[in-house]
Design brief:
The protein is α+β, with helices and mostly antiparallel strands. The protein has seven helices and eleven strands.
Length: 219
Amino acid sequence: MSLRINDEAPNFTAETTQGTIDFHEWIGDGWAVLFSHPKDFTPVCTTELGYMAGLATEFARRNCKIIGLSVDPVGDHLEWSKDIEETQGHAVTYPMIGDTDLAVAKLYNMLPADEPGTSEGRTALNNATVRSVFVIGPDKTIKLMLTYPMTTGRNFDEILRVLDSMQLTANRKVATPANWEMGEDVIIVPAVSDEEAKEAYPDGWKTVKPYLRVVSQPD
């Protein structure tokens, strides 16, 4: 099953380093980031999990939970967590899913549905496509998907930036331009007429083109 933005995030029950979860129940009424890894004790993923641990309070401030996944047993995750804290300086306080039967990787289209076997005997190269990030909204739909190669560490500051944009634009009829950061000008979406915009933005806006109207970020 292929997944697209605005599809419902597939639900699942899984073992994690913090016990068994039902994914949708675990998300609750907030946002969530699910990010996956092809194998425990791999160098790039070690830095990623540690960096995310350092950002945990920033995600929490945005009412967003973090959960990791790796195609290995939970017991290995717990041992790996010790290395992550030792080498990256941050303890992993979010849950990590053990996907030994590859079920979640297949459910999220990161491995073929007919992929045989379990995590046993598999290498990071076998699981190279299990390198995705999914941002899921309170309505349990997928808001963002990214997949990276194994040799390139992910930019989780960018995930925070996109989360800020999505939370702002979910509540306001605006969009954010390239490289936007919180507090910078935004774009009034074309679906909003000039008459409606005058009510929403009585101080006015800058019309670059009729379809490109720039305004200060609303509160």
